[in-house]
């Protein structure tokens, strides 16, 4: 479904943020990426839909290399990749429904995008998605008036509106309280199990990774240091993933 | 125990001796320039002021005449040569002049701002448009009207084009500044869903821009109304400004001038109330 091979990225040419990252994501599974701050988790996620251009490697999404697409093809591919952000990234002055409807604009014409021309079927679907995430009553509320947990659920509904094969989540629960965290994670888990969507999540909370993930990838200093089923994520493995890289090791990494 | 010769110590601060530096207030070249300029201007004023006073000037009479005129204007306003209808018509003309110029200006400025916001436009274009607009803004509206009156003759045409010209330059800047505040994340999010540029502008930029667009446009409307009154007098563009000019300089009818001043004042107060309401309803949304 999604296979990343030998991905490498350097933001400034000298310091490498990713060195030779390879992993794959299976359909209908929750894959969680964990690792210390600055390890390169965000970089990996944003490379997948090419929000940042990586330097080297392959990103095969349904056997098509995302890095080889031209602008139009890339837009087409992106319209079927959902993305969920730590800060929700909703258009706050608009209503929840309008935000969800943005999800289907990627496949529509410029005119439809400019003048918000949606079919009735699309509006119905957006409403149903809001109901699915438990926000049916908030459809016509301005998003700036919603709570963090509600905003994130609008974000999920918006991603679902794209009919995604995969949803990429960059720390989706980092700004949420425990209750909203459970709601959001349960939703994402449900999408993988029941709708067969691949869910790739960057997380900082190991316990949540253990509860929800099928597959865990550990990243440290721009390299994959763990790649296995969740059951194999022992405490020693976690310590290893979060291990501080000493300077001698770091210089070895850069030379190699 | 560290041997005494190997011990380190923090250097003690020596008491500062006399320093032979120029005092701060003379070192600042800007301040010196300002001081010299002010001194020269003061000198010139003192020299020329006495020569400006005409021989037949009598201070006491001038002051009583002035207060008399003020009294007529503000305490005994009534109409004699003009009718209420034509006066209201004149006010309407000035309002329409302000409305038309603000409308055309805000539409043109919106597109120019889109082409010169850092969020969407390349730096060269941003700098190009913004510096061109700065030059236009630097010349006052009345002057633009007079410049255009060379082409169109004194009158309404020159007024419309001149005021619009300055409005476009003003609004382009404030709109572009407001557009710059759009967060890059909002743009990126929509890009990540495969949206194209025009859709991103309409779905993300415009919703965020709307409140500041409305309040800036309204502020410009107030400015344009004041300009329309002044230009009615200066460039014969009609409206209440022209009537004001006629009754004061042509008929010397200060009773009538008083009525007009009150009328303009009332309208300004109405505008102020509307803009206050507009602003508070916008802030309530945030
Ligand atoms: N825009 C950028 N320009 C330069 N360097 C960057 C940029 N973004 C990230 N980096 C660097 O790349 C490395 C990986 O960053 P990344 O954001 O992917 O880490 P992360 O694992 O997501 O960290 P966190 O858990 O704190 O979000 C870091 O060393 C960071 O300093
Ligand atoms: Mg990150």
From the 3D structure, determine the CATH topology of the largest domain in chain A: Rossmann fold
> Residue share in helices of chain A?
25-40%
- The percentage of residues in β strands of chain A lies in 15-25%
Strand ordering within the main sheet of chain A: 6-7-8-3-9-10
Q: Considering the protein shown, what is the CATH homologous superfamily of the largest domain in chain A? A: P-loop containing nucleotide triphosphate hydrolases
Strand percentage of chain B, roughly?
under 5%
Distance between the termini of chain B: 66 Å
User: Which series of helices and strands of chain A comes N to C?
Assistant: EEEHEEHEHHHHEHEHEEHH
Biggest beta-sheet profile of chain A: 6 strands, mixed
What is the highest CATH level, the class of the largest domain in chain A? Alpha Beta
The general outline of chain B is flat
Structural class of chain A: alpha/beta
Number of strands of chain A: 10
**Distinct ligands, ions and cofactors found in the model:** adenosine-5'-triphosphate, magnesium ion
Radius of gyration over C-alpha positions of chain A, nearest whole angstrom = 19 Å
DSSP helix fraction of chain B: over 70%
The geometry of chain A reads as: globular
- Structural class, from secondary structure content of chain B? mainly alpha
Q: Residue-averaged pLDDT of chain A, rounded?
A: 93
Organism (chain B): Secundilactobacillus odoratitofui DSM 19909 = JCM 15043
GO biological process, one term (chain B): transmembrane transport
Domain ABC transmembrane type-1 (chain B): 91-275
Subcellular location (chain B): Cell membrane
